[in-house]
Amino acid sequence: MNVDGTIAARSSHRLRAGWARGTPAFGLWSSIPDTSVAELVAGSPFDYVCVDLQHGVPTFTELPVMLQVMRAAGRAPIVRVPWKDPVAIMRALDTGACGVLVPMIDSAADAERAVAACRFPPAGQRSWGPMWGYTRTEGVPSPAAQDAAVLCIVMVETRAGVDALEQIVRVPGVDAVYIGPNDLALDCGYGRATYRDSPDVEKLLDHIITTCRSAGTAVGLHCSDLEMGEHWARRGAGMLTVAQDTGLLQAALDATWTRLHPAG
C-alpha cells in the first residue's frame, strides 16, 4: 500500500488541507481511557480527535489500545503528551498518533526540541522503532514519509511563550500553534478570566492568532463550548476543540434527566 494512503497520513492531510483552504477544523478531546468511547469519537465526522495524556485520565499504559481502536475506526488521533519531553513525543508517535500536541512551549529552543523529536535524522532526532511494524496492513512508511505526515503542534500558554511567539512560528517543522487559554490567562496574571469577561484576554488571543496567521502558521484554540469555537473561527483560528467526551456524556445525562423531570 502506498505510504501516502496510511491512516496517519490521511488524518494529518485532512487538517493540512483544511488549513490550506482556510477552512476551520473542529475537533474533539478524548479524556476517557475506554475502548468503546475511543471507537465512538474516532468514528465521528469531526476533523480531529486529541487524546489527552496531560490532564485526561489516559496514560501511556492505556494509549496503545486506545490508538489501535481509533485507527480501526479510521482515525489516527493527535496526542497531547504530558510534557515537552522528547521521550514522550517519540513514544506517542511510535504508538500510532498522527501528531503531537506539546504543552508549555516557552521559547524557540523548546519548539526546536519538539520538532526534532517528531522527525527522523537527518531532519531531527527521532529514534526508529515502529511499534506495530509487522502487524499493520498498511505497512511501515519510510522515515521520509513519516516526517512529511507527522504534525508537530506546539502549545503557547504562558507569557514567555507569547513573548517568544514570533521566533516560535519561524521554527521549521512547527505545523501549528495551539492556545491553552486557561493556563495563558493564569500565567499572564488574569486568573480564571476568559475573553468574555476580560478585554485584555481577548486582545491576547487576538494577538496570538494574528501573529500566527501573518507567519503562515495554523493556529488552534481550546474552547469551552461551541459558541467559543464559532466565535474564534470567525476571528481566524483554524483548529478548534469544541467538545470533550466527558462533557458530552455529562450533557446527555443532564438533558435526559431534565426531560424526565422538567421541574427539577
Q: What can you tell me about this protein's structure?
A:
The protein has 264 residues and is an alpha/beta fold. It is built from twelve helices and eight strands.
What is shown here, in short?
The chain is α/β, with parallel strands linked by helices. 45% of the residues lie in helices and 15% in strands.
Amount of beta strand: 5-15%
Number of DSSP strands?
Answer: 8
Low-confidence stretches: 1-5
Report helical residue fraction. 40-55%
Specify Rg, calculated over alpha carbons: 18 Å
Note the run of SSEs as H and E.
Answer: HEHEHEHEHHEHHEHHEHEH
Largest sheet: 8 strands, parallel, barrel
- The order of strands across the largest sheet is 1-2-3-4-5-6-7-8
**Helical stretch tally:** 12
Distance between the termini: 56 Å
Mean model confidence by pLDDT: 94
Outline, from the CA principal axes?
A: globular
Helix-strand blueprint:
Elements lengths: L6 H15 L3 E6 L4 H8 L5 E5 L10 H10 L5 E3 L5 H10 L3 E4 L5 H11 L24 H7 L1 E6 L2 H5 L1 H4 L7 E4 L1 H7 L11 H16 L3 E5 L3 H9 L4 E6 H16 L4
Parallel strand pairs: 1-2, 1-8, 2-3, 3-4, 4-5, 5-6, 6-7, 7-8
Write a concise keyword list for the protein shown above.
single chain, 264 residues, alpha/beta, 8-stranded parallel beta barrel, 12 helices, 15% strand
